[in-house]
Amino acid sequence: MHILPAASARPDYAMLVKQVASILEGERDLVANASQFSAFVYDTIADLNWAGFYLARPNKAGTGEELLVGPFQGKVACARIPFGRGVCGAAASTRATILVPDVHAFPGHIACDSASNAEIVIPLVQNGKLVGVFDIDSPTLERFTLADQAGLEAMIGAFLAATDCT
Ligand code: SME
């Protein structure tokens, strides 16, 4: 049986986009805005166990970039993820949102929190540069719909418009 998410799991994304713009107005600092954005998403969108940023940073070998954990809400996560690895690395490499209904069926998924069952990762592209990804996890299988994807992408759009990421 497929159980529909509760009404609270269907947020008014148009309103949330306006709220993001309002919360971040007057501040363009990356750490400040990424912290506020993570807290806002975690607080307003139901049924999540992780929401936060991985930012493109130099790898330890100094041979290129990889993803490094940034401001987030949820349990302690893996710090570094190479491009191309896991859902986050795949979204970073392809610069496309990846919606994963069941993380256990995603080849190479990185399990930071065993409670996670569904995930959506949105790439952050500013001035033509991949600056990181925003990752959201849920304990509920098939938690995210295409409507959630469009809404979350719009929220990220408001974040990118309000923030100097480099
Ligand atoms: N599951 C992610 C790793 C990050 S955590 O979920 C916070 C992935 O496969 O890229």
Describe this structure in words.
The model has no long low-confidence stretch (mean pLDDT about 95). This protein is about 30% helix and about 25% strand. Strand 1 and strand 2 form a beta hairpin. It is built from 4 helices and 6 strands, in the order ααβββαβββα. It is globular. It is of the alpha+beta class. Strands 3-2-1-6-5-4 form a 6-stranded antiparallel sheet, with helices on both faces. The chain has a single domain, classed as GAF domain (Beta-Lactamase). Helix 1 runs parallel beside helix 4. It binds methionine sulfoxide (SME). Methionine sulfoxide binds next to helix 3 and strand 6.
State the gist of this model.
The chain is of the alpha+beta class and 166 residues long. The chain has helices spanning 13-24, 30-44, 86-94, 146-162; strands spanning 50-58, 65-74, 80-81, 98-100, 118-126, 129-138. The mean pLDDT is 95.
Q: Which characteristics define this entry?
A:
166 residues; 6 strands; Beta-Lactamase; binds methionine sulfoxide; single chain; six-stranded antiparallel beta sheet; alpha+beta
Say which molecules are bound, naming each kind only once.
Answer: methionine sulfoxide
Strand order of the largest sheet: 3-2-1-6-5-4
Identify the CATH class. Alpha Beta
CATH architecture: 2-Layer Sandwich
**Structural class of the helices, strands and pairings?**
alpha+beta
